[in-house]
Structure formats: C-alpha cells, structure tokens
Design goal:
Helix content is 40%, strand content 15%. It has 247 residues and is an alpha/beta fold. It has one domain: Aldolase class I (TIM Barrel, Alpha-Beta Barrel). Helix 5 packs across helix 6 and helix 6 runs parallel beside helix 8. It is globular, with a radius of gyration of 17 Å. The chain binds 1,3-dihydroxyacetonephosphate (13P). The site of 1,3-dihydroxyacetonephosphate has 14 residues, from strand 8.
C-alpha cells in the first residue's frame, strides 16, 4: 500500500520536522508499505536533496506558472530539482482557495512535464440521496484528465477525499462499503478515459480522517491502493501505529 503523509501546514518547527522525518525513515525501512511525505516546501528542500532512503517526497501543490516574474510561486520544476517525485494537485483545501477545473488541469500538466507523479484529489462536498456525489466526482476527474494525452492520463494517481470527511472538523467518517462503491466508480470513470486496459494499473487512494482504528477495515475489501493521511501523520506515535496496521 501507499501511504502519503500530508503534513499540510501543521508542522512549521524545523526540529519537529527533522524528528518526524527521522521516524518516517525508520517506519519506511521496517514496512512493506511505500511512504511518501507531502510536506511544506522548505522541508522538502532540506530533506529530499540527499535522500537515499525509502521515503519519497511530494509537493502539496505546484504553481500554475512555469517560471518568471511570479514572486512567491514554487514551480513543479523547482520541486523536481530538489528531489520531489510526486505532487498533490487539486486538494480541496486548494480548490477552496481558488483552484478551478482549468487550474487543476494545467497544474497536472506542469507536474507531469517535470517528472512529478500527480496525486489528483477529488471528492464531493456532501453525500446526497440522489447520487449527485458520484457525478461531482466524475466531473472532477473528467475535467482534469481530458486535456491530457492518453499516455499522461496513465500517470495520474487519483485520491478520493470526500470534503465532509476531511480536516479538523469532519462531519462524518466513510463506511468501508461506501468507499468500495466509490473506488469501483472511479475505476469505471478511469476506464473510459484511459487507453485500452491501462486503467487496470491506475492507483486509487483514499483520504479523510484516516486513523489507526479504522484503516484496516478501509483497506480490507475496498480496492484502494493506499491512503492520504492528514492529522494522523503529524504525530510520530500515531503515524507509526497507523502504518503498522497495514503491515
Ligand atoms: P485528515 O486526515 O486530517 O482528515 O486530512 C485528510 C487530507 O486532506 C489528506 O490530504
């Protein structure tokens, strides 16, 4: 399984970041799971350059710009230059800050151009009884992938992150059955967009209040290939216990 630790902006203390990185390396060495650290940009700069460990690094976002006079922006190329190999694109916390469909599609293209494997986040605002949440997820995938070439589409990892289940104040927890349904649905949408049978190799992750207590049930029969973990990834003991659940 793949476990992406999304530190968001929870960690801004360098000593704490170093400690969490050291523990993550140890966890990765002992685990059969792949650990990807999606951490604040300065910490990627500090840790990824000479990284010879099993841990991989992901940007939490990339700039819409490809360079030039854009103060404060961090391009996909800059992330790639310091050793990041993945990029989270279209996280709901970025969509809320203004990333619309076209921004997400362009950022995906930049990430791929510069050798970063995109982790495309999709997810509905709420669950309704008419199944509109399914079309909302479909729309997010289709608008993101359609502008890409067929080959590029095969490189995308999709992370299903229902907005209602994410962050510090979630209004619910996903049931394993509901996750199974959504993973199947996402695979169906991918099958329509990817060439031949290549969608069979696409990776689908889940994120939203993933905790040590529930992760095994979510992993068991849902068909997910891994998890995006927010809060539970920034405490060393909690994160270590969570990864162990999947070993
Ligand atoms: P939480 O695990 O804190 O709900 O965050 C999930 C998430 O947004 C990961 O990208």
């Amino acid at each position: 399984m793949i476990i992406v630790a999304n530190w968001k902006a929870y960690i801004d203390d360098f000593e704490k970041a170093k400690k969490l990185f050291a523990i993550s390396k140890r966890i990765a060495r002992a685990s059969k799971n792949k650990i990807i650290l999606a951490i604040p940009a300065p910490f990627i700069g500090a840790f990824a350059v000479k990284n010879k460990t099993k841990v991989a690094f992901s940007a939490q976002d990339v700039s819409l710009t490809t360079g030039g006079a854009s103060t404060g922006e961090i391009t996909a190329q800059a992330y790639s230059a310091v050793g990041a190999t993945y990029a989270i694109i279209g996280h709901s916390e970025r969509r809320r800050a203004g990333d619309d469909y076209s921004v997400v599609a362009n950022k995906l293209a930049h990430a791929i151009t510069h050798g970063l494997t995109p982790i495309l986040c999709v997810g509905e605002q709420e669950r309704d009884s008419e199944g509109k949440y399914l079309s909302s997820v479909r729309e997010q995938i289709v608008t993101a992938l359609e502008p890409l070439t067929q080959k590029e589409r095969t490189e995308i990892i999709v992370a299903y992150e229902p907005i209602w289940a994410i962050g510090i104040d979630p209004t619910g927890v996903i049931a394993p059955n509901d996750l199974t349904e959504m993973v199947l649905y996402i695979r169906k949408v991918l099958a329509e967009l990817l060439p031949g049978k290549s969608s069979a190799h696409s990776l689908v992750l889940y994120g939203g209040s993933v905790e040590q207590g529930g992760i095994r049930a979510l992993a068991a029969n849902s068909g997910v290939d891994g998890f995006l973990v927010g809060r539970s990834s920034v405490d060393p003991h909690t994160f270590s216990a969570l990864v162990k659940q999947l070993d």
